[in-house]
Design goal:
mainly alpha, three-stranded antiparallel β-sheet, 48% helix, binds 1-deoxymannojirimycin
Length: 599
């Protein structure tokens, strides 16, 4: 790793070993004489060796005694991170001595370490050994026909991805090619824990090998902090916890460290874009603001990274964002969808929505509270206030059949826009999870109403697939119009991207209530995916859910199809409702389960 490339030509190691041996055997006078016969450079080398030995002893001994807890495996991670620290010191000394001796340039003889996160060189960041040692979980594969069908769908998707897009971000299953977004093999990393939970051992093994050999983060390329955090960091951490395999933690650690520059803003609210190679960050190209949901949907992952690595800086930086947003003025707990990273202020007149750019702010309030063993009260309080604000301002009903939906508030007057993104359908599951954990029981009632509406957004379409956005009729029907529709879809909103949100909610509803209707609804939707989105080399987004004859396939299989949609379907058809224990695990926004801590 740090060895000189060409030992024979490097001046600074040309010490004659025989001279050194004689030197060691002589009287004190002859020792001094021989010492002064040595060239200055040779004496420098001896100084260097002695200093190095002292430094190694000095640095290693205290570190061992510091980390001496009873379970030796728990200390293994901090030890691994200590190594680069003293190796770096040696490296500096070698370069220094080589320069003094006028020999080969340091740049020629020192090889770059493969993995040397800057964070490892910071002492005061250490919070101690990891708080949780993962024990590999065992999953035995599908246990009924519905689960088997979901696993078959996974394998069909995986086969196409492997053949035409291996190592790239997303499969384009119709053109049999791929799409690159961040160049991080998104589909592989996002799918790791799904494969693990489905018991797909050989597929998991090949994905693991790719992660070990090919997943690197050093390329100079901008990535989106939120997307990479929930998909890649979340996927790696989750797989580490499920499998106990440290390769995933090592990769997560490297990635987390490279994402940290995003937090280098005046307010602490992160920039949206980070360059993993150059470790620089900036606002999005389209404007000065970050999305509120994006900056508040990284905390589960960064906290977990701190807990498993023993390095506090990840959790501190991300928690600071939540604390900052906590003290901003809100509209009965509801937040505008844009926030400025430099000023730390909301863009006041931006829309309020539980859909795009707002959604997971609310999700992570509850989930952070649960992740930390219900110990951080302001998160629970902000969540409760937001749901209260939702009931007060956003909950609306269609005129005809009283379907409840969450509207958006737009403009300075906060006008009601009767529009709901499919993304909002995640909220049913979140509300049910909160109510199940002791929050108000009327949250469960709200969840049930939202589930009923979200189901309709699928059921009213001839494809039985929901559109990206639905609009709702809240005006009283004109006299004589007995057939007024509850919801309608605009042509530009009629696409379906294989999104998971409603299936995610059905999974929570099934796990928390045991009502089989939720399983049956999920099965209907799964069959619609089979019928209208399955193609020869995978599954594709479609452009039009309003026609069975003209679905307009879009040639894109998003990575969340494997990380979330199929995972939640698989768990929805888990008759035991125990494959993943919701008392011990919290799912991040991309469907990656992370452990719940005591505090
Ligand atoms: C996923 O990447 C995550 O669920 C995210 O929170 C929202 N969008 C997609 C799925 O629709």
């Amino acid at each position: 790793m740090y060895a000189p490339k060409d030992l024979a030509n490097a001046d600074y190691i040309s010490l004659n070993i025989n001279d050194t041996a004689a030197f060691a055997r002589g009287s004190p006078q002859s020792l001094w004489r021989q010492w002064y016969q040595l060239s200055r450079f040779q004496r420098n080398i001896i100084y260097f060796v002695v200093i190095t030995v002292c430094l190694v002893v000095f640095y290693l001994v205290p570190s061992d005694s510091k980390g001496s807890v009873s379970n030796s495996t728990e200390t293994s991670h901090p030890k691994q991170h200590d190594a680069p620290k003293w190796e770096k010191l040696i490296e500096e000394l070698v370069v220094e001595n080589a320069d003094q001796g006028g020999g080969a340039g340091g740049g020629e003889v020192i090889e770059e370490p493969e993995f040397q996160p800057e964070v490892n060189q910071v002492d005061d960041d250490q919070i101690g050994p990891p708080q949780r040692k993962p024990i590999a979980m065992t999953f035995t594969g599908p246990s009924n026909q519905r689960q088997k069908a979901v696993v078959d769908a996974f394998l069909h998707s995986w086969k196409g991805y492997k053949r035409f897009a291996w190592g790239h971000d997303n499969l384009k299953p119709i053109s049999a090619s791929y799409q690159e977004w961040f160049g991080l093999g998104l589909t592989i990393v996002d799918a790791l824990d799904t494969m693990y939970i489905m018991g797909l051992n050989s597929e998991f093994a090949e994905a693991r090998a790719w992660v070990e050999e090919s997943l690197t983060f050093g390329v100079s390329r901008d990535v989106n902090l939120f997307e990479v955090t929930i998909r890649v960091l979340g996927g790696l951490l989750s797989t580490y916890h499920l499998s106990g395999d440290k390769i995933f933690l090592d990769k997560a650690f490297d990635l987390g460290d490279r994402l940290m520059p995003a937090f280098s803003t005046k307010s602490g609210v992160p920039y949206s874009d980070v360059n993993l190679g150059t470790r620089t960050a900036h606002s999005p190209k389209w404007g000065p603001d970050s999305s509120t949901s994006e900056v508040t949907t990284i905390q589960l992952e960064f906290r977990d990274l701190s807990r498993v690595s023993g390095q506090s800086k990840f959790e501190e930086a991300a928690a600071k964002v939540s604390e900052h947003v906590h003290q901003l003025k809100k509209f009965d707990g509801l937040v505008p969808i844009f926030i400025n990273a430099n000023t730390g202020a909301f863009r006041e007149l931006s829309t309020i929505s539980f859909g795009a750019r707002g959604d997971s702010y609310y999700e992570y309030l509850l989930k952070q509270w649960l992740q930390t063993g219900k110990t951080i009260d302001y998160l629970r309080d902000d969540y409760n206030t937001a749901i209260w604000g939702t009931q007060k301002h956003l909950v609306k009903y269609t005129a005809a059949n009283k379907y409840m939906f969450l509207a958006e508030l737009v403009g300075s007057n906060k006008d009601v826009k009767p529009k709901m993104d499919h993304l909002v359908c995640f909220l049913g599951g979140t509300l049910a999870l909160g109510a199940h954990n002791g929050l108000q029981s009327d949250h469960m009632k709200l969840a049930e109403e939202l589930v009923r509406t979200c189901y309709q957004t699928y059921a009213v379409q001839p494809t039985f697939l929901a559109p990206e956005i639905s609009y709702f009729n809240i005006q009283k029907p004109l006299e004589g119009d007995a057939n007024q529709l509850d919801m309608y879809v605009k042509a530009n909103d009629a696409h379906n991207l294989l999104r998971p949100e409603f299936l995610e909610t059905l999974f929570y509803m099934w796990y928390l209530t045991g009502n089989k209707t939720y399983q049956d609804w999920g099965w209907e939707i799964f069959q619609a995916f089979e019928k209208y989105t399955k193609v020869e080399h995978g599954y594709t987004s479609i452009g039009n859910v309003r026609s069975t004859q003209n679905t307009r396939p879009r040639d894109m299989m998003e990575s969340f199809w494997l990380s979330e949609t199929l995972k939640y379907l698989y768990l929805l058809f888990d008759d035991t409702r125990q494959l993943i224990d919701l008392k011990k695990w919290i799912f991040n926004s991309e469907g990656h389960p992370l452990p719940i801590y005591d505090s």
